[in-house]
TrEMBL record, chains A, B:
<keyword id="KW-0378">Hydrolase</keyword>
<dbReference type="InterPro" id="IPR029058">
    <property type="entry name" value="AB_hydrolase_fold"/>
</dbReference>
<feature type="domain" description="Dienelactone hydrolase">
    <location>
        <begin position="88"/>
        <end position="215"/>
    </location>
</feature>
<dbReference type="GO" id="GO:0052689">
    <property type="term" value="F:carboxylic ester hydrolase activity"/>
</dbReference>
<comment type="similarity">
    <text>Belongs to the AB hydrolase superfamily.</text>
</comment>
<dbReference type="Pfam" id="PF01738">
    <property type="entry name" value="DLH"/>
</dbReference>
<dbReference type="InterPro" id="IPR002925">
    <property type="entry name" value="Dienelactn_hydro"/>
</dbReference>
<protein>
    <recommendedName>
        <fullName>Dienelactone hydrolase domain-containing protein</fullName>
    </recommendedName>
</protein>
<dbReference type="InterPro" id="IPR050261">
    <property type="entry name" value="FrsA_esterase"/>
</dbReference>
Amino acid sequence: MRFSVTSQMSTDGVTEQSFTLGEITGILFTPQDATGPRPLILMGHGGGQHKRAPGIVAGAHRFAGEGGFAVAAIDAPSHGDRPKSEQFIQLASDMRARMAADEDATEPATAIHTLLAGQTVADWQAVLTAVQEFDQVGAGPVGYWGMSMGCRFGVPLLAAEPRIRAAVLGLLGARGLTDTAAQVTVPVRFLLQWDDKMVPRDQALALFDALASTDKTLHANPGGHGEIPAYETDDTLRFFTRHLG
Amino acid sequence: MRFSVTSQMSTDGVTEQSFTLGEITGILFTPQDATGPRPLILMGHGGGQHKRAPGIVAGAHRFAGEGGFAVAAIDAPSHGDRPKSEQFIQLASDMRARMAADEDATEPATAIHTLLAGQTVADWQAVLTAVQEFDQVGAGPVGYWGMSMGCRFGVPLLAAEPRIRAAVLGLLGARGLTDTAAQVTVPVRFLLQWDDKMVPRDQALALFDALASTDKTLHANPGGHGEIPAYETDDTLRFFTRHLG
């Protein structure tokens, strides 16, 4: 697959390089004027979001600007700048209709996750290899961060990819993932929102339980799906620094 | 009640003053050569332990030595250097016999907690008033730390005592405490051990749930009742610094 940097800009001490790798569209965030190898964090966005979602960009800027990490974010298949498949469009339409009618949207959401998981894992593995060619990244330790759909794809990625040494996951239940989670052995921080209406609490606890990692910590906070408190980002930065730094 | 300092020693930059307040036996830990007011942390030990239990002394030294806090630890009634009541002796003997026989010891443990809770809350309120008279403590912000039986007494203390502004609790279930927990509104960090054989997981989750605090975070780690990982102490120090510092 052909790798190209399509644009570059720097803001607040962080350089963002937009890239394509074959069909994959992504961004590499590094500290401005960085040279030489550094730990890399892969950030997977949530359902309906993309590589420039506010939570991704804010986190990437903190990890790169404060922590000195390299950070890669990519669009999941059928998300962001990537073409949408017919099957995805139908499932997403079904999901939106059910959510608008206040009905349970678990079935189409799960179908979307299943549809995209295999491709996303392969995409991340290719992106990891490609960005480690950069002088300011190199073949150092790698971490993964992903909430909700980003967690759904992170679990099989961690099971498949030995280069990733630590992960921050969360906002997802165990449904269909228990066996894969049992293959995850790296240190994990797992975030759960206590009043999450999209993820049943017992399902999220079951996913944390299913992870085989001996070093894993669950952090549960009050609030809904998108309301993770800001101090968890401070903690995530410390977690990655401890395990990758 | 008469307050007396009975001995004083300094180790590794921390001064320990043993004191009595009426029948209450305790220790005040402060940074060596400290002068002027500072935040105070009250540390409540677990069942069968005392004010010099290794976990209390280690935590107090970190809070005082690294964080600059004052720390007060006292013996619970019928614990440590305090005389044991007849009723306590009988219940403790029953509990030990059941534990030795691998039987459920919840009933005598709960009875001990109920027996001692009221006195312990009154003790802490008196000790708080007394130690704040020290020049190197003063009337600054106050926190509470207590696991297991220390959590059992901490919940009613927090409900009763407006001077305490933040607490680290855990290793306890909700049984008999739900209504009192609903009166706790200060920021809480709640520690749960995922494989705790002494506290059913759903009961511990229920106690976290019952706390009325809007700023509360549950941290769950693998391992048994006494196996809280060391990095939670780092986090506790940051939690108290954030809320009391």
